[in-house]
Amino acid sequence: MSFLESMQRVVESDSQLQKLIEEVEQAASLVLLILTALQLGRAIAVKVVEEILNERGQAQEVECAECEKCKAKLESKGLLPREILTLIGWVKWKRRVRRCPNGCEGSQVAPSDEVIGLRAYQKTSLEVKWLGSALAIFVPFETAAVLLAMMTGVKVESKSIWLWVQKRGKMAKEELDTQLAALEAGELPEVELKDAALKTLSLLIGSDGVMVPFRPNGVKSKWLHWPVWENEPMEPSSWYSDVWSHFWGRWMTSLPGCGWKP
Ligand SMILES: [Zn+2]
Asked: The pTM is what?
């Protein structure tokens, strides 16, 4: 049976999917049609993922792993259930689990979990953590949890998002400390290689910016830009200062209350 035939059988035999299909067919308004169709799409996505994970998790392993402590061949514990919260909802499947016959602590492994990058006791998939953490950059954790649920249907505690951000922040701090320690020891950071096509350009203009909350008259924040110049073919000349003034003049003088003039 092909994968498509297998999925058709799953859809036809699943009462929850059949109910969602009926709701889509009977949706009276466009909004209801879109929201119900989105819900149906997520439900089908869950079934597709579960079908694939079940197939991979129940396939026979080519090699039998060894216990890291006593080097005995791990014995099969049969098919055990696993579930995880993902961006499309809760996903549940069964996969082969092995354990040391001598009962060594921490020896239980699920080889197919390791292949797909799933850690032991991991309850939430990384893409949920990425999106939740990204939202928390702009809004408080409670609001991030509400927005995440509105956009994806995935419900998590605001405390969970706080913990994800703390963990990622700690990892980023450790990485920065390592880089700074290397710099102090005289090890310079690796230079990013430029694309060969970029090197042939005589002039390259880039732009960066930052939001500045100047709102003395209730106007919106301004997006400050500044140009970045590379691969200049000659010394800065009049055209350079003209364009420079144009950039700075355009953005800086548009700021209410900003007395800076190019
Ligand atoms: Zn062992």
From this structure: 0.68
